[in-house]
Write a structure and sequence with these properties.
125 residues, mainly beta, 5-stranded antiparallel β-sheet, 3-stranded antiparallel β-sheet, 1 helix, 8 strands, 46% strand, globular
């Protein structure tokens, strides 16, 4: 379940981020959250207008915010860690995504799965 959820989430983030306008990508953090745990960018909608998209960690949840919505909607399972980074300082058209999901086990413990997507190439300069 954790593996399926994390793959689906990474696939969605990867697809959306590829459509971003590179000059609009901002990696930061929401107040009180871990560093580099939010990415905001603009992408073209099918009608040619621009839409703002944001993925971010808030507590133990991953949120997706689109358009002019006041708040994002929670997506995915309990999140332990999320980070967006630039693997190369000389190229802002490539972003690395890393996330760790966590799920409770029968014994009262937790099982975590760390997934990473390296080098998501932003296709719109």
């Amino acid at each position: 379940e954790i593996q399926r959820e994390s793959r689906a989430t990474l696939s969605n983030i990867n697809r959306e981020l590829r459509q971003a306008l590179a000059s609009t990508v901002v990696v930061d953090q929401a107040t009180g959250q871990p560093p580099q745990s939010r990415i905001t960018f603009q992408r073209y909608k099918p009608d040619g207008s621009l839409e703002t998209v944001s993925y971010y960690q808030q507590g133990r949840k991953l949120y997706l915010k689109t358009g002019s919505a006041a708040t994002g909607k929670p997506i995915g399972m309990p999140l332990r860690f999320l980070a967006f980074t630039y693997p190369r300082t000389d190229n802002d058209g490539i972003v690395s995504v890393s996330l760790t999901y966590e799920s409770a086990t029968y014994e009262g413990g937790a099982k975590a799965l760390q997934m990473a997507v390296e080098k998501v190439r932003i296709m719109n300069p």
